[in-house]
């Protein structure tokens, strides 16, 4: 099996290189190898590699910057997945792509299911939704995994930012009215490898392609997440200026940003868990593991 992996230097791409390696030859590319915003370069890459599977964690994830750089965000988040779908379809390849809770407006009271109608409130969310739609229209052999609040030991993320700030300041203020589930990049990578393996086994008998919500179990706010990170770090002997109690809650309206964030980022993972008979561990387990690596 030959696997083309984009975004090799990102949080998820880094973990996917490890998780996919036992399944076959992995051709991993980053921005320096292939500019996803260049359609011709992207098409040429797929044709040259001729993969059996395309795994695409690459994305324009600078949510606020995207508000003033919509053309680039659309090229990477919307056009590129459609191109991967088109070129993959010519090869009969599976395309595994990752999307986001930001395709929803965050106003629902409960967790979002795959049947809920998307209503993105930002350029990032809109372009990610367009990417989903473009891929699905181009290639029936697709898996789209919507996830939330990705965290990993490699690359930048919220947990690392909180550790840095808690080491510099005695008090922190963190948004407390946005809810979701911090999801480890390693968990997503391992689940992805499982899906690729299952697809290889089931191709002659059919496979449940489509869109699935995949996130760690449970929920928290950014404020609760920050307190957990600081508490775990202090328990591990990390010297920090800020204590858990020094993290003050903040309302979203008190912290204006160029891009609107959904207040509710909770994703219902029932379809994924029942379809593939897999368990999604509580978010605390994964974040604790990531923190052990970081610390």
From TrEMBL:
Enzyme Commission no: 1.1.1.133
Annotated Gene Ontology cellular component terms: cytosol
Catalytic activity: dTDP-beta-L-rhamnose + NADP(+) = dTDP-4-dehydro-beta-L-rhamnose + NADPH + H(+)
Pathway of action: Carbohydrate biosynthesis; dTDP-L-rhamnose biosynthesis
GO molecular-function terms, A-Z: dTDP-4-dehydrorhamnose reductase activity
GO biological process, one term: dTDP-rhamnose biosynthetic process
Keyword Oxidoreductase: yes
Annotated cofactor note: Binds 1 Mg(2+) ion per monomer.
Cofactor(s) the protein needs: Mg(2+)
Pfam name, any one: RmlD_sub_bind
CDD domains: dTDP_HR_like_SDR_e (cd05254)
Domain RmlD-like substrate binding: start-end pairs: 1-293
SUPFAM superfamilies for this protein: NAD(P)-binding Rossmann-fold domains
InterPro entries: dTDP_dehydrorham_reduct (IPR005913), NAD(P)-bd_dom_sf (IPR036291), RmlD-like-bd (IPR029903)
Record keywords, A-Z: NADP, Oxidoreductase
Family in the record: Belongs to the dTDP-4-dehydrorhamnose reductase family.
Role: Catalyzes the reduction of dTDP-6-deoxy-L-lyxo-4-hexulose to yield dTDP-L-rhamnose.
Official protein name in the record: dTDP-4-dehydrorhamnose reductase
Organism expressing this protein natively: Massilia cellulosiltytica
Organism phylogeny: Bacteria, Pseudomonadati, Pseudomonadota, Betaproteobacteria, Burkholderiales
């Amino acid at each position: 099996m030959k696997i083309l992996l984009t975004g090799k230097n990102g949080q998820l791409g880094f973990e996917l290189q490890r998780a996919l390696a036992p399944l076959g030859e992995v051709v991993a590319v980053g921005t320096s190898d292939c500019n996803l915003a260049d359609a011709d370069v992207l098409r040429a890459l797929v044709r040259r590699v001729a993969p059996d599977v395309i795994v695409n964690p690459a994305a324009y994830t600078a949510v606020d910057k995207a508000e003033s750089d919509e053309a680039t965000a659309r090229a990477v988040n919307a056009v590129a997945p459609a191109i991967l779908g088109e070129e993959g379809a010519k090869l009969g390849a599976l395309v595994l792509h990752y999307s986001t809770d930001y395709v929803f407006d965050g106003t629902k009271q409960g967790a979002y299911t795959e049947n809920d109608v998307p209503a993105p409130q930002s350029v990032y969310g809109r372009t990610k939704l367009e990417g989903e739609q473009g891929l699905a229209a181009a290639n029936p052999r697709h898996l789209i995994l919507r996830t939330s609040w990705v965290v990993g030991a490699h690359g930048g993320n919220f947990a690392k930012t909180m550790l840095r700030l808690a080491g510099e300041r005695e008090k922190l203020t963190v948004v407390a009215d946005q809810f979701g589930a911090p999801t480890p990049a390693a968990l997503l990578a391992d689940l992805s490898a499982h899906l690729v393996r299952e697809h290889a086994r089931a191709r002659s008998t059919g496979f449940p392609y489509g869109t699935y919500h995949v996130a760690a179990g449970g929920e928290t706010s950014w404020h609760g997440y920050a307190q957990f990170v600081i508490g775990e770090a202090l328990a591990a002997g990390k010297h920090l200026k800020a204590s858990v109690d020094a993290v003050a809650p903040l309302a979203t309206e008190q912290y204006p940003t160029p891009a609107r964030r959904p207040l509710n980022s909770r994703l219902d993972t029932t379809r994924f868990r029942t379809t593939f008979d897999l368990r999604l561990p509580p978010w605390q387990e994964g974040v604790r593991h990531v923190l052990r690596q970081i610390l």
